[in-house]
């Protein structure tokens, strides 16, 4: 079986650039630099997009270890809970100087006690299903999942060996990880940076290095639009990609037209962590004629629509091997390549797919998927069982309804700290009673309709 690291190492043009210093590194400069034990175990990597984080990632990709990729901004209490539950062999987390039960080595913390459980050999990467709430639930991905996902993306994106690609999305996020893997395999220079599009330093780097592509979730494109991106010219830019939630039709048209008249390409894509990232893309030439579509399946992928529920069902070699909520789940890997997406869809006469609704209780805010049930649990625990209900409104904001008098500012601040999201994405609403279904449960569908109506 082909390993992801081997494909990366086989790219002779590949260089990693440290945006902070301007230094260039080959793959060989960034591997075999950590003194890892030659064993199969679990490692927790809290990764930003710095050159040091990419070095740690490459070291562990070229090792027998299973690696959990996590946000370095995760609340410290959540970090400790996860580490107590999974008992990893190694932890990479530059934000801490000590971890209880671990000894500090060069840039790593090593567990002083053997984990005492086995891990299925096919599990290579664990990605969080929430990213922010500290849920112990991970998506289990194999080497083949990672490789097949990367190759399917390379099949349609115009990645070239002279490209200069910034890591503008976190590599612990499936979309950001796919930008890293695809450009490491087929690209040229990968610029390691944690700067974002609203910082002037990002644009200084853009001009200094000559970025050839930009990847972003809807919020990134909203920010680009706000700062006047489409009023300027970018000679080095060849294409842009968007995923991580639905982009507004107005912005899709704006960026699509901007890129098209300059003979550049704008790709709208659809995916989920459970598919290692990518399931579909909208060819740039169809962006205006198929407005609102998620496009067509990636190479070696297939869509079906359930006749009973209209749920979109994906089949492909990049489908995950199940969830892990504890160490017992790390002993199995399900090789069933079918994913029930939780999205409802329809297909037009030309074979293009359109999402018509969402069956699951998630919302994507700034490209981060947030489990609404987990948010409710956080609030109920903090409020000592207080009655709350949460919905997401068009992946734009999270609406919290509550009974009784509560401090709305305090709730917003709590959620901002717990989820690492800006307070502006939260709406707090006091109600006299909840809308209920006939069987006495909270009627989230009615809440959703009310939230949309109020938004209008």
Automatic annotation (TrEMBL):
Record-linked Gene3D superfamilies: 3.30.300.30, N-terminal domain of ligase-like
All copies of domain AMP-dependent synthetase/ligase, residue ranges: 121-323
GO terms for biological process, alphabetical: fatty acid metabolic process
InterPro entries assigned to the protein according to its UniProt record, in alphabetical order: AMP-bd_C_sf (IPR045851), AMP-dep_synth/lig_dom (IPR000873), ANL_N_sf (IPR042099)
Keywords, in A-Z order: Ligase
Sample GO molecular function, one term: medium-chain fatty acid-CoA ligase activity
Highest taxon, organism lineage: Bacteria
Entries under Pfam families matching the protein: AMP-binding (PF00501)
Family: Belongs to the ATP-dependent AMP-binding enzyme family.
Protein name as it appears in the record: Acyl-CoA synthetase (AMP-forming)/AMP-acid ligase II
Source organism of the structure: Chitinophaga rupis
Lineage: Bacteria, Pseudomonadati, Bacteroidota, Chitinophagia, Chitinophagales
């Amino acid at each position: 079986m082909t390993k992801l690291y081997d494909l990366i190492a086989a790219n002779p043009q590949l260089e990693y650039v440290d945006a902070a210093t301007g230094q260039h590194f080959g793959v060989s400069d960034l591997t075999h630099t950590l003194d890892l034990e030659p064993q199969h175990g679990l490692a927790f990597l809290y990764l930003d997009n710095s050159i040091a984080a990419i070095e740690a990632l490459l070291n562990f990709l070229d090792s027998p270890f299973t690696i959990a990729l996590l946000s370095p901004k995760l609340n410290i209490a959540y970090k400790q809970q996860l580490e107590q539950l999974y008992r990893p062999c190694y932890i990479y987390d530059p934000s801490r100087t000590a971890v209880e039960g671990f000894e500090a080595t060069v840039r790593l913390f090593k567990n002083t006690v053997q984990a005492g459980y086995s891990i299925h050999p096919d599990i290579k990467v664990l990605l969080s299903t929430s990213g922010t709430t500290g849920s112990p639930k991970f998506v289990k991905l194999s080497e083949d999942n990672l490789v097949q996902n990367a190759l399917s993306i390379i099949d349609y994106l115009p990645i070239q060996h002279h490209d200069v690609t910034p890591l503008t999305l976190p590599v612990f996020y499936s979309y950001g990880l796919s930008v890293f893997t695809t450009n490491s395999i087929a690209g040229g220079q990968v610029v390691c940076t944690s700067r974002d599009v609203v910082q002037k330093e990002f644009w200084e780097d853009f001009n200094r290095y000559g970025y050839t592509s930009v990847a972003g979730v809807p919020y990134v494109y909203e920010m680009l639009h706000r700062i006047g991106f489409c009023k300027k010219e970018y000679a080095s830019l060849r294409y842009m990609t968007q995923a991580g939630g639905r982009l507004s039709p107005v912005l899709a048209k704006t960026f699509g037209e901007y890129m098209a008249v300059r003979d550049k390409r704008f790709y709208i894509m659809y995916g989920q962590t459970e598919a290692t990232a990518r399931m579909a893309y909208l060819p740039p030439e169809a962006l205006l004629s198929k407005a609102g579509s998620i496009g067509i399946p990636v190479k070696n992928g297939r869509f079906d629509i359930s006749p009973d529920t209209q749920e979109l069902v994906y089949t492909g070699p990049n489908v995950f091997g199940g969830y892990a909520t504890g160490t017992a789940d790390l002993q199995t890997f399900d090789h069933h390549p079918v994913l029930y997406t939780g999205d409802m869809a329809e297909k037009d006469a030309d074979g293009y797919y359109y999402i018509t609704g969402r069956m699951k209780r998630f919302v994507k805010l700034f490209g981060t998927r947030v489990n609404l049930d987990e948010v409710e649990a956080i609030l109920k625990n903090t409020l000592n069982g207080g009655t709350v209900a949460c919905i997401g409104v068009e992946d734009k904001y999270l609406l919290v309804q509550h009974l009784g008098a509560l401090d709305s500012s305090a709730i917003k601040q709590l959620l901002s700290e717990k989820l690492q999201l800006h307070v502006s994405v939260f709406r707090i609403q006091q109600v006299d009673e909840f809308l209920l279904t006939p069987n006495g449960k909270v009627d989230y569908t009615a809440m959703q309709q009310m939230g949309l109506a109020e938004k209008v």
